[in-house]
């Protein structure tokens, strides 16, 4: 038996494990090779370990996949499993592992890494393990022989006819999620592999090298029909990198789905487009197109190997508006070479193009294996190499033109109204330094008295509340109370410092999703303000106050949402975030004599 593990997402990321489409596809391929496969997918590390060990008498190979923000949990799980099942080979694969293969194979609890596409390589590895054969024959395999890292030649690309379309039952929620554009639950599907682009920030061309391969239109449509029949779903998120790439596929696809009464959204390249193909797709249910633009700055485009035709984008947005098709433009912020001027120019371009489907900015992440042709430090500063923070709404790279992370945060907050986090390791280190001082009072944020009116599985007001996709709890109002002792007042002034707040997946933006909060020390008001959507994990709160707020003996800090507040959206989410940060950095809530 082969166990395939989708490890938990970093506890700092504002989302949990998502649809494991790639892992389910791999399971489908292995199953066709008459191999027994099980998928382990849980958001909790300890539960993941427990589930793996339940197969200890059957498993012959354990495979881990994941993105950068899953690698720390994957390595922790693998290390613990190796202690329990020392004779079971452990292999890593997927985007992050492909970029990190040289580091991973040197760990004594990881036996192999598969670089790139996994189907042919993993099935070959399993057969070699079973017969104790020659590992040098396994394509795309990397392993450490005790002296050097050996890298076998890359596997041939899987033929389009063999690209598996996964069993829906192998994905959480059957791979069905709520989509705002389609205004309904929709099934995620992918019908191709590869990308003709070579963007420096992306691993797609390393995972799926060579030409773009589409499954046949007949297979794609039969898959759609099966989902309709099995789940009564008529809405689809077609998540191929560039669905318009293969004209013949599109024409036959349109012919085959014209009577299925479906609605769907697609992605496409920003280099060029075909009006005829888009109109044909609209006739059979196309609702929205998302276009990866990233930046209009030609200097940045050159650094990231991104070719975008600005005139074509302007023509596309105009064409879609006139034909009642939503179009969204997707940009990146914080790219190497970006300046404040280029950030503003991107916004001007959005204003001029008027995309009727909106726009979005994702923060650049220097993922392992990307940017092999330039040295990122020449164009900015990598704030942390802790992969727990490498998710798309967190700043881990700061271009040279910004004096600090807050300058970039303020631009994003002002113009995009978007919740982002920062990984300023200097401020983290500052708090850790204070912990070593005996005069610093450290309050364990898990040691609180809470009074929460209404516990929810999501923030009040979210359209996705009914889905219950987030495990983070929130409520409409409440209070947190922390008690602590002071033996002696050490200074005339103190600093209250902590990191806080959090937001879950699908989080709507704006102050209506913030919380009015008062902070009191021994019933003296220290601060009243908002814990805003922008104040996500990584934001450092610091408040100086006179020592008269304190007393020798027992003291109390209270975080409270006043009854008269306009915004009452989740003091327990704040408590959750404090606990997360305490576990990761052992900082907690600090009272520091200054």
TrEMBL record:
Residues 181-392 form the Radical SAM core domain. Its cofactor is [4Fe-4S] cluster. One of its GO terms (molecular function) is catalytic activity. SMART domains: Elp3 (SM00729). Residues 6-136 form the B12-binding domain. InterPro entries: BchE-like (IPR051198), Cobalamin-bd (IPR006158), Elp3/MiaA/NifB-like_rSAM (IPR006638), Methyltransferase_Class_B (IPR034466), rSAM (IPR007197), rSAM_horseshoe (IPR023404), rSAM_sf (IPR058240). PANTHER family: ANAEROBIC MAGNESIUM-PROTOPORPHYRIN IX MONOMETHYL ESTER CYCLASE-RELATED, BLL1977 PROTEIN. This is Uncharacterized protein. It comes from Muiribacterium halophilum. The lineage of its organism: Bacteria, Candidatus Muiribacteriota, Candidatus Muiribacteriia, Candidatus Muiribacteriales, Candidatus Muiribacteriaceae.
């Amino acid at each position: 038996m082969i166990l395939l593990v989708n490890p938990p997402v970093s506890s700092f990321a504002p989302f949990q494990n998502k649809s494991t489409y790639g892992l389910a596809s791999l399971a489908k391929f292995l199953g066709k090779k008459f191999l027994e496969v099980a998928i382990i997918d849980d958001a909790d590390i300890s539960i993941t370990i427990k589930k793996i060990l339940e197969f200890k008498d059957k498993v012959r190979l354990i495979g881990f996949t994941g993105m950068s923000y899953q690698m720390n949990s994957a390595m922790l799980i693998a290390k613990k499993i190796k202690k329990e099942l020392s004779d079971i080979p452990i292999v890593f694969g997927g985007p992050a592992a492909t970029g990190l293969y040289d580091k991973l194979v040197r760990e004594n609890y990881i036996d192999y890494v598969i670089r790139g596409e996994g189907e042919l390589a993993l099935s070959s590895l399993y057969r070699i393990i079973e017969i104790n054969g020659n590992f040098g024959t396994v394509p795309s395999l990397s392993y450490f022989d005790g002296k050097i890292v050996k890298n076998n030649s890359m596997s041939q690309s899987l033929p389009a006819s063999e690209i598996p379309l996964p069993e829906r039952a192998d994905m959480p929620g059957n791979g069905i999620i709520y989509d705002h554009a389609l205004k309904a639950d929709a099934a995620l599907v992918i019908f191709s592999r590869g990308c003709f682009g070579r963007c420096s920030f992306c691993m797609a061309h390393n995972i799926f090298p060579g030409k773009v391969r589409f499954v046949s239109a007949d297979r794609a449509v039969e898959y759609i029909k099966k989902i309709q029949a099995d789940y009564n779903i008529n809405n689809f998120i077609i998540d191929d990198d560039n669905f318009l790439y293969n004209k013949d596929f599109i024409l036959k696809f349109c012919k085959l789905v014209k009577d299925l009464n479906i609605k769907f959204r697609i992605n496409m390249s920003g280099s060029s487009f075909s009006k005829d193909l888009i109109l044909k797709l609209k006739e059979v249910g196309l609702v929205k197109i998302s276009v990866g633009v990233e930046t209009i700055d030609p200097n940045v485009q050159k650094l990231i190997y991104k070719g975008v035709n600005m005139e074509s984008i302007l023509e596309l947005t105009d064409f879609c508006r006139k034909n009642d098709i939503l179009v969204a433009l997707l940009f990146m912020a914080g790219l190497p070479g970006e300046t404040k001027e280029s950030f503003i120019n991107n916004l001007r371009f959005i204003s001029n193009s008027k995309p009727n489907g909106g726009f979005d900015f994702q923060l650049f992440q220097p993922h392992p294996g990307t940017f092999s042709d330039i040295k990122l430090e020449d164009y900015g500063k990598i704030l942390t190499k802790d992969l727990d923070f490498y998710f798309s709404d967190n700043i881990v790279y700061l271009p040279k033109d910004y004096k600090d992370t807050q300058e970039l945060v303020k631009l994003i907050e002002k113009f995009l109204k978007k919740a982002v986090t920062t990984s300023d390791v200097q401020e983290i280190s500052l708090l850790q330094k204070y912990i070593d001082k005996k005069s610093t009072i450290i309050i364990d944020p898990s040691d609180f008295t809470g009074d929460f009116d209404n516990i929810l599985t999501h923030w009040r007001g979210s359209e996705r509340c009914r889905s219950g996709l987030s495990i983070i709890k929130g409520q409409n109002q409440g209070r947190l109370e922390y008690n602590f002792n002071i033996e002696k007042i050490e200074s005339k002034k103190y600093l209250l410092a902590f990191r806080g707040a959090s937001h879950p997946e699908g989080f709507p933006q704006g102050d209506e999703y913030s919380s009015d909060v008062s902070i009191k020390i021994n019933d003296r008001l220290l601060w009243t303000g908002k814990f805003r959507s922008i104040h996500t994990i990584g934001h450092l709160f610091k408040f100086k106050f006179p020592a008269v707020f304190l007393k020798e003996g027992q003291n109390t800090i209270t975080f409270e949402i006043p009854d008269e507040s306009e915004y009452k959206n989740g003091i327990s989410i704040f408590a959750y975030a404090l606990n997360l940060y305490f576990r990761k950095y052992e900082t907690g809530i600090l009272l520091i004599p200054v």
